[in-house]
Specification:
By secondary structure, the protein is mainly β. It folds into three domains: 160 residues, Immunoglobulin-like, CATH 2.60.40; 61 residues, no CATH class; 268 residues, no CATH class. It is built from four helices and 35 strands. The strands form nine sheets. Strands 16-14-13-15-17-22-35-25 form an eight-stranded antiparallel sheet. It has a five-stranded mixed sheet with strand order 6-1-12-8-10, with no helix packed on it. Strands 5-4-7-11-9 form a five-stranded antiparallel sheet, with no helix packed on it. The longest helix is centred in the middle third of the chain and has 11 residues.
């Protein structure tokens, strides 16, 4: 081991606070830790982004012991994400977390032990875990000063549990209904969308929309549908559909609420974690400690950028992407939008075109070179009866958050590193993805197709039913901009933007700047990933990174008013579904876009 490294040994344990005795007519009833019904345990451990439940004591599951990675550079962190589960049926629990240092450089002391080298930060410091519920927290060990010698430190974090007898559950309590409330996919009324299943090799079959085997979100099987080319007739149920008869493919994102974690950035949760999602078609309301009404503007169509007044960490909130259109779900392009009949990357770099040029399939060349206005216009004209439109930033966030839950791949998707901008590809595991833009060795030519085991890793589900190209390929413009932009390369007349239907855009505070996570819209997968950190990468370029896989993070401002997502095939390690950047809105030979459909709810 090199000098200057610091390793911390951490022990976490669950203990129980004293519980008062309650006298009743029938005598003394003890409730708490000595009641057979009350049991709080560790149910998951993730160390530095890797699930490792072997760290949990296999006996009573009330302790976790782990050793941090080597910390050698100021700001280096090792992060344990833990999940506690309250197995009780009749008791809720309040869990408080306190950390103390046991040794510094191997030396114990009876006095308070301090270290100038590392900082221990539990987040949050208390959790309310209802009966039959799980909650997550993190312990972050951060290097504050570099040592010239090898140091080893030990500390202990204790979780103290105070049980309380559970009262009858209020009506507003939000419980996970285990996918029972998944909104049925809405195919619209014009028979354009055809429900399909896709087997592991990519074979597509028409199915009955009311059948049991179309989708299963509890098992990460997302619903898919296709639109056929003009003149093609839909086959009978259970019959195959050949790829050359298909024009576009879409994936259903059902309406959901998610548990908030970084509403503000004063005391942020740093690391990537599994996002807690509950499928439901009802909008949340303001109930302190339970849920909050989704912040929207006066027209109730756009997410509101800036300070959030009513929402708090730990509460559930309906994702704004579904409120904008007033729907119970969205169809999103399974792949980046391609240019029909293009036979090379260059021929798909087209600054003009119509909705008839759109194709959304694997192994197509991404349509690039359009201004934002061109993208917006062709998207909106594509299928007006299905409310087709250019994907918004909040809609990207809705897909990204669902992907990072138990209903999705629950980690970062693999980059599409195909250097010809072909859709649906994934870098092979042997490819060096640790490089940065401008460095050699990204291995752009070493990739796998969407319908292979390696290709599945680029899908939001980790299987063939998910959404592809959310990392790499072409970077994608989204319909999201800063109000009152000072530059206008988008093709829109600035005064005309305000005249367009606001449900088609996310509009951000004009005071936003490169590093301004507070100017986020909750749910857009930007500021909730903070705080952002600026440092020089190995290619000697200074960049802002978020704390979800250190993806590149550049917030919009008035001179770069339009959001971009996912980066392109050259992005390497800074890519991911949580990557976001900014652009003036002009055409670019590496910038594409994605379609979304929002068919009105059926009555």
């Amino acid at each position: 081991m090199k000098k200057g490294m610091i390793i911390a040994l951490v022990i976490m344990s669950i203990g129980f606070a004293a519980v008062a005795t309650t006298l009743t007519i029938t005598g003394t009833i003890k409730y708490g830790y000595d009641n057979d019904d009350f049991d709080v345990i560790f149910s998951e451990a993730i160390l530095d982004g890797v699930v490792n439940n072997d760290l949990i004591d296999t006996g009573d599951k009330k302790s976790i012991t782990f050793t941090t990675k080597e910390l050698s550079t100021i700001g280096d962190r090792s992060i344990l994400e833990y999940q506690v589960m309250n197995n009780s049926k009749q008791y809720d629990a309040t869990v408080t977390i306190e950390c103390e240092r046991l040794t510094v450089d191997g030396q114990e002391s009876e006095q308070e032990i301090k270290s100038e080298y590392t900082e221990i930060k539990p987040s949050p410091t208390s959790l309310t875990v209802k009966a039959q519920e799980s909650r997550k927290g993190t312990i972050t060990v951060e290097l504050k000063k570099v040592s010239t010698e090898i140091l080893e430190e030990k500390f202990k974090c204790s979780l103290t549990v105070n049980p309380s007898e559970r009262e009858e559950e209020p009506e507003e309590y939000i419980a996970d209904t285990s996918c029972e409330s998944v909104a049925a996919p809405n195919l619209g009324t014009d028979n354009k969308l055809i429900p399909v299943t896709i087997n592991n090799s990519g074979e597509i079959t028409k199915v009955n929309a009311t059948g049991e085997n179309w989708y299963d979100y509890c098992n990460k099987q997302w619903a898919n549908a296709v639109i056929l080319k003009d003149g093609e007739t839909a086959p009978e149920e259970n019959q195959k559909i050949e790829m050359d008869k298909i024009e576009s493919m879409f994936v259903w994102i059902p309406k959901y609420k998610y548990r908030l974690w970084n509403v503000d950035v004063e005391h942020p949760l740093y690391n990537a974690h599994s996002i807690e999602i509950v499928f439901d078609t009802e909008d949340t309301t303001n109930i302190e400690g339970v849920s909050c009404k989704t912040p929207m503007n006066e027209e109730n169509t756009q997410g509101l950028s800036g300070d959030i007044q009513e929402c708090s960490n730990g509460e559930y909130m309906t994702h704004p992407a579904f409120i904008s259109f007033g729907v119970d779900g969205l169809w999103v392009g399974k792949f980046e939008t391609g240019y029909k009949d293009a036979n090379s990357a260059g021929s798909a770099n087209q600054s003009t075109g119509a909705s008839t040029n759109i194709v959304v399939k694997p192994n197509e060349f991404s349509w690039r070179g359009l201004t934002v206005k061109n993208m917006f216009d062709v998207s909106k004209a594509y299928e007006s009866t299905l409310q087709s439109h250019m994907m918004k930033n909040t809609e990207w966030g809705a897909v990204a958050y669902l992907s990072h839950s138990i209903y999705g791949i629950n980690k970062e998707v693999t980059i599409n590193n195909n250097d010809q901008y072909k859709t649906g590809y994934a870098a092979l595991p042997s490819t060096d993805q640790s490089k940065y833009p401008g460095e050699s060795g990204n291995g752009e030519s070493f990739n796998a197709a969407w319908n292979t085991s390696d290709g599945y890793t680029a899908s939001t589900t980790g299987n063939i039913t998910g959404v592809y190209d959310m990392s790499g390929g072409a970077w994608e413009y989204v319909a999201a901009y800063v109000s009152e932009p000072q530059t206008n390369n988008s093709g829109f007349q600035i005064e005309d933007l305000s005249k367009l239907d606001e449900k088609y855009f996310d509009v951000y505070d004009k005071e936003s700047a490169l590093n301004s996570p507070k100017k986020k819209i909750l749910g857009d997968a930007t500021g909730e990933l903070g705080p952002f950190t600026n440092y020089k990468d190995s290619d000697n370029n200074q960049r802002w990174h978020n704390h979800w896989y250190a993806d590149y993070s550049a917030f919009t401002d008035t001179t770069h008013p339009w959001f971009t997502r996912g980066s392109n095939f050259r992005g390497g390690v800074i890519n991911g579904q949580f990557n976001f950047g900014r652009n003036p809105g002009a055409s670019a030979d590496s910038g594409g876009f994605r379609l979304a459909l929002a068919p009105a709810n059926l009555t």
